[in-house]
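Worked example (supplementary).
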Amino acid sequence: MNRIAASLAIALLATTLPVLAQKPTVDVAFAIADGHLYDKFSPANEAAISTKVAADVSALLATAYPLFDFATRPASNHLSITLEDRRADSGVAPAVVLTLKTKARVLVDGQPFLSESIPYQVMFRGDEERGEPTGGAVAFAGEIVAALRNSVTTNSSGFVTGVLAPINVTTEVFPLPHQRVFVMPFTATAYLIGRGSRFRVTATGQSMQAYDLEAQAGDAANPSDVPAKFQRGLCLSADRPETAVAQLPAEQGVRADGVHLLKYDRLIPDPPPIPPSALRTNRGGR
Amino acid sequence: MSRFAMLALFLSLATAGMAADYTSASAASEKLVAAGDAAAAVTLLQGALGDCPAGDPGRECRAQLQFALGYARESAGELEPAAAAYEAVLREYPDNAQALANLAGVYRRAGNAQNAATTYERAAKVDPAAAATYLLAGAEVLHQADDHESAIKLYRSAMRAGSPDAAPRLVTMMDRWVETAADDAERRWRLQRSSEVADQLRRDGTIGPALDAYENIMARRAAAPDIASHALAAWTETHANAQSLTAGALSRLPPVSEWQSAFLAGLAATVANGTWSFDASAFTNDLERYAAAAAAKAIGDQLVAENKPKEAQALYREALSRAPRPDEQDSSDELSWRPVVYLDAALQLARIAQATKDDRLFAQVEDQLFDQKMAAYRSKNLFAVQRMHTVLGTIYAERGEWKVKAGNPYTNATFQLEKALETAALRQEKQPSLQPLPYLRTTLAEGYRIQDDQAAARKQEIAAAKDYLDLDSIDSAQASLRRAAAAQPTPEEKQSIDALQAITNYRSVIQKGTSTADPWKSPATLKLDDDFVSRQKFKTYSDLGLRAQQLGKEKQAETYFDAAIVAVQEQKVVPKSDASRIQQLEKYTLTTKRKTVAKLPSLDTIEIKPPL
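After joint prediction of all chains, the assembly is encoded as:
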């Protein structure tokens, strides 16, 4: 990490409270489909590839989406990545894809339920590159991670919608129904959530009516409106669908059952000043 | 350590005659600032500044202490004196990126967005390694100051410098800008600008943010229904060509019940039912026609994956009949750069015809493609001619049809692929460009082998190896050379193979990072053209320079980078795959102040046209 990045990280740490008591944790696992053209590594090398891909992808996603914890240890939410042929190409030399599936632990009517996402595919090698050598285990793992990094960089919205949206961020939400607002137990700066971020909020009214709403990230909650735990908390303003928002009861008694990330707009903090110890007059200066 | 302890330590060092030099003063001041005593830091630094030698010998001392003074002043919220201190550093070292970045930060805090952005841009120029960070910071300042047009430019510069956050932030800014419009007229104009930005993102291949931008526009469709309709067609085309047009993606659009759009209704039904459901008479422009065809082709692909070739065939037929013809697409600014759905659909239909042994279907597709090829010849559009020969050659190759049949010399892969390569050579002659086509060459070589024409196969494999090297596909180059070497080459071919093998070996070793030795000092006898050799030398020396730099061998890195600059200046055309190497050299020439910088090819003028 260079000095500028280190300074930035320190400045961010100073502004990251309050945070979630426990971020949703997602375990990451990788496998090559059985019998695939690339399913030719020794068991030891295959294990090395799986371990490296899982670890590097966890680190990559943790940086890209700070609202979630990604780990290689078992967790309540699972992300599986499988290297396989694209089925749409059956009959000809198929492209090779990475298929991502999320299994997320959610509550439905108060009962735990495992919600599965629709498979999300990332191009790994086109039909022309299919026959090219894989190289050693480390190089191959690196190529897989690079393909996923490219996907996250160029189509982050698709990744959020296709992979992260099923995961419940928290049920610890303070509703302000008269304002059509749900207050989160963390600040926008804690997880770098910009105002372009959007969430899906599932809620239940006093009469047990269910609401499925979309909400935009906004300003921090007004301290007088909310308990101490939610002060400075990120406010989500429900705005879609308009009909459901209009029906949301204005009185108390609304309960949030789940919050899911639909769109992530990264908050860009102002760069902190570079300290004198990082000054280099012999580089780019003479 | 307390303020007093720090000062006492500094003074005791000074009185003891020890080296209480400027670096110690700077470090002590930083600790004081961290302890919350910026005022003491300022006092300490002002005293130390007086001890700097006059003139050039004191340059480093003054710069370090002024920088620390700027930092202390800024920490104390004294922005004007902080700016003055950073400017003092810049008088000593005008291109110091850190002083520029901190000065920009002071301007930002003082609310001077224009100066902040300009200064961040200067910092980005002198420190390309941190350019993405600085340019994004500049764009954010302009964004917060509501200078949207300037912010658009800087976000785009940050994107080019490699900032992954720049495009999403640009999209967020555009949406907020539309949201805060004072009236409908202003909102409409801002939506139009958002639409232009979204189209540019799409064109650049920044697909995720482009889709977000189109969705934002559609969510605000009431102010400008026509702009929202364009966004819907562009969104559909983007998803279709990215193979991500699914029910999940559609759920991000306004519901059909809330938006009376014939196109949206057709799209939703096509995705849900897997059958063509667009009302073609309601298409209002070529983009809608193209997007509907692209959607049909994409859903057809999904049906093939579900093993429903009959349903897929119906959609591919619709795509083929509705899509703009290749020559139409070529002549439209809005469509020319997008994938040619007509040809993709034809290729898929030919595959289905082969898999289902449907000769009638194949004959129909074949006729249509030959008609289009003739149209391309008539309009003298060499690019289209090459493309049509390539598609026909690919189709025949997949069917294993290599030889002349029934007296017709045209309906085979050998003829079509040879013509595609001839046309590519003709284009290259007319307008110097580089079109590595290794896939076509290896496919054709395979056809020659099937026909037992080993000489022609060897020729194509050797040419393919060169093309692969131009594209940095070292392993594939090696595979082509192995095939050529195994097919009894002539002595002259053997020399070329040996020379290419030597280059491939050097590049493989460099790629694996096992050597930084100069391979060109003992070159094999090169039976290769000069321009190709220059290109390979450039790639080799650039990569070696980078490797040497990573290993801390600065002197060696300089030698290699200088050699790379000589090699690139000898080249007629610089391929697109060398863009990052050129950037690397630019960074090198800037940081070392090499005079050769002006002679490097501009990234804007290097060959970027894809072969097909």
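Two points are worth noting when inspecting this output. Chain A has two domains: 22-164, 174-263. The longest helix of chain A spans residues 43-64.
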